[in-house]
Amino acid sequence: MVLEKFTYVFVIGTFFAMLDAYNNGANDVANAWATSVSSRSITYRQAMIFGTIFEMLGAITVGARTADTIKNGIIPTAAFKGDAGVQMLAFTCALAGASMWVMWCTKHSAHVSSTYSLISAVAGVGVATVGADKVQWGWNNGKGLGAIFAGLGMAPAIAAGFGATIFMTIKVVVHLRQNPVPWAVYTSPLWFLIAGTICTLSIVYKGSPNLGLNKKPPGYVAGVTMGTGGGVALLAALFFVPFVYARIINRDHTVKWYMFVQGPLLFKRTPPADADRINVPNYAVVQDEDDEEHSSTRSPDSIDEIDVIKGDGSLPTTNQAHAVNEKSLADVESKQHNYQELMAAAQEKFHARLRRKRGPLGWAMRTLHENPIGPGEIYEFANIKILFVKRIPAMIVCGALYGLHYDIHAAQSGIHGTPEGKRMQGVYDAAKKYPNEVEHTYSFVQVLTACTASFAHGANDIGNSVGPWAVIYGAWSTGNAAKAKAPVPIWQLAVLSLVISLGLITYGYNIMKVMGNKITYHSPSRGCSMEMGAAITVLVFSQYSLPVSTSMCITGATVGVGLCNGTLKAVNWQRVGLLVISWIMTIPIAGTIGGVLMGILLNTPHFKA
Fold first, then answer.
1. According to the model, what pLDDT value does residue 311 have?
2. Residues 31, 454: Cα–Cα separation, whole Å
3. Which helix (H) or strand (E) covers residue 486, if one does?
4. Cα angle at 51 between 46 and 53, to 5 degrees?
5. CB contact at 8 A, 454 and 51
6. Predicted confidence band of residue 320 (pLDDT cuts 50, 70, 90)
7. Does pLDDT of 574 surpass 60?
8. How far is CA 253 from CA 248, 440, 443, in A?
9. 3-state SS class at 571
10. Would you state the pLDDT for residue 297?
11. What is the mean pLDDT of the chain?
12. Arithmetic mean of pLDDT, 424-437
């Protein structure tokens, strides 16, 4: 029996479930890929493609087929007394509170955990519904709020230890060698073995608990994980080592990516006569913008003051940009340009470059620029025509494609000459830079760990959004309050995984620009250490049934690897402090929003028919 009178609650709950999933992609998933993008192991657009594929693959194939009706056991099931309407309203308010808080934080580039936001909102709803004494404030077998607070403090610290241990191992085995290139090439199967084992364990214990793999005997799990890791290492020895040997040691720049299938035959490949350069990417965080097309898509945060103050409107050369010094800054100050004015002018120059581009984004930017709202109120026919015929379609295109053209690295390094830019320059100067040919070998390992993390996230964390939505849908469609477990239709998994990917593609850049290199200097060897350290931490906590945020783990691992540079100056502690504050504030704010909404709606005056 469909609860027709609660259809509006179902519609609103569906909206906030999708908004929560969108925020999940823009926040948590974007943070998971921020390390790989920041290390230049993968481009932002490639990360969007791989992230979408593996998120949806994990959610649809092995995602939660059942969901906890009461998130993490914070509210007892008996609290609703079988009232389906109150249960629908409770989870709608929880989704609304969590999604509104996370959306605000994402807009202001403050990274928070969508998991912790939803749990906190459920707690607030519980206080408004059944009273504070019925909410599980203690440990509750690792599912209460006490466990959440414990995980918030312990997880980043433990992840920092694991990440630092892995990177110090790489540093000792490879980076500190007098000739590190051969060591990097020939020891690469070892890192594939470690990464393959960790990734398999992530799928077994976090990515696919619904398959029951984590219930198998320990010997079976060990055999599967070590067998998979060993198989990956064997494939690396047969195909990857010859490939990087030919490309890096033999300096054969004619070797294409698809030639790895030749395997050991590449050892016998004769390099060309002009084999005097290594065909590997440049992994430096700050690079010269020599390419016209690339420079035309620099983000507002990458524009130097010299770009702003040139009077003739022409673009400065690279040498001019790097020549900005104290004298030029004094000139800027003498012209009374404050920070906000510089940002506005820089953004306008960035948008001007986008308007010169070909393709849909260039068209949309030109349309918005050339068709402002005319004189008079918005309800004037001419303005209505401009709005609906030209501006709204252009806004939709900009919203979908703007992030794909955003310069993540330039935004992370800050504006030259500003306090933030100087702070980041000091952080980068404190980190030792390793040869590109050495870092290149770890970029492949990092992409492997990032893809696995996305798969596990899609399989497990999609329950944060689909769980409450499944409860709302079940209560609405059957007319009965959901029990301890609610079935999750596969179409709901598909829809929300698609929305998560949409959040990653369209709004993920807003989180990526304040993560990664904004905390410490990144490179592939550092990045894969961070991701493996975070994955190990999540696995450890999952064995004790403790709620933990993957985002908090990767942040802690990032700080731990940054400290391996041997100085506190290698970490941007201001950004770390802002992250910790946002984590702590999530619990009371999301809980208050959810609780206030529930209290207002539950006690709204109504009339009986």
1. 37
2. 11
3. strand 485-487
4. 100
5. yes
6. very low
7. yes
8. 8, 14, 18
9. strand
10. 34
11. 80
12. 91
Tokens of 478: 């059957």
Give me the residue label for tokens 């709901």.
492
* H or E stretch at 236: none
Q: pLDDT tens, 62-106?
A: 666 555 555 556 776 666 776 778 888 888 999 999 999 999 988
For residues 97 and 118, give the distance between their C-alpha atoms in angstroms, rounded to a whole number. Answer: 8
Q: Are 209 and 460 in contact (CB under 8 A)?
A: yes
CB 401 within 8 A of CB 360: yes
CA distance 52 to 504: 8
Residue 519's alpha-carbon distances to 287, 414, 558, 562, in angstroms, are 18, 12, 7, 8
Query: In angstroms, rounded to a whole number, what is the distance separating the alpha carbons of residues 356 and 63?
Result: 43
Please report which confidence band the pLDDT of residue 188 belongs to, taking 50, 70 and 90 as the band edges. very high
Report which residue type is found at 595.
G
Q: Which helix (H) or strand (E) holds 487?
A: strand 485-487
SS3 485: strand
- Indicate the domain borders of the chain: 4-155+459-518+547-601, 298-409
> Which residue, 180, 172, 177, is CA-closest to 249?
180
pLDDT at 241: 93
How many helices (H) does the chain have, and how many strands (E)?
Answer: 27, 2
The C-alpha atoms of residue 458 and residue 54 are separated, in whole angstroms, by: 7
DSSP E strands, 258-349: none
Residues contacting residue 519 through CB under 8 Å, at least 6 positions apart: 555, 558, 559, 562, 571, 572, 575, 576
Q: Are 74 and 144 in contact (CB under 8 A)?
A: yes
91 within 8 A of 515, measured Cβ to Cβ:
no
Residue type, 409: H
Instruction: Give the model's pLDDT for residue 207.
Output: 59
Average the pLDDT over each of 74-88, 195-209, 262-276, 282-296 and give the range with the smallest value. Answer: 282-296
To 5 degrees, how large is the angle CA 193–CA 198–CA 201?
A: 125
Residue 338: the pLDDT is 66
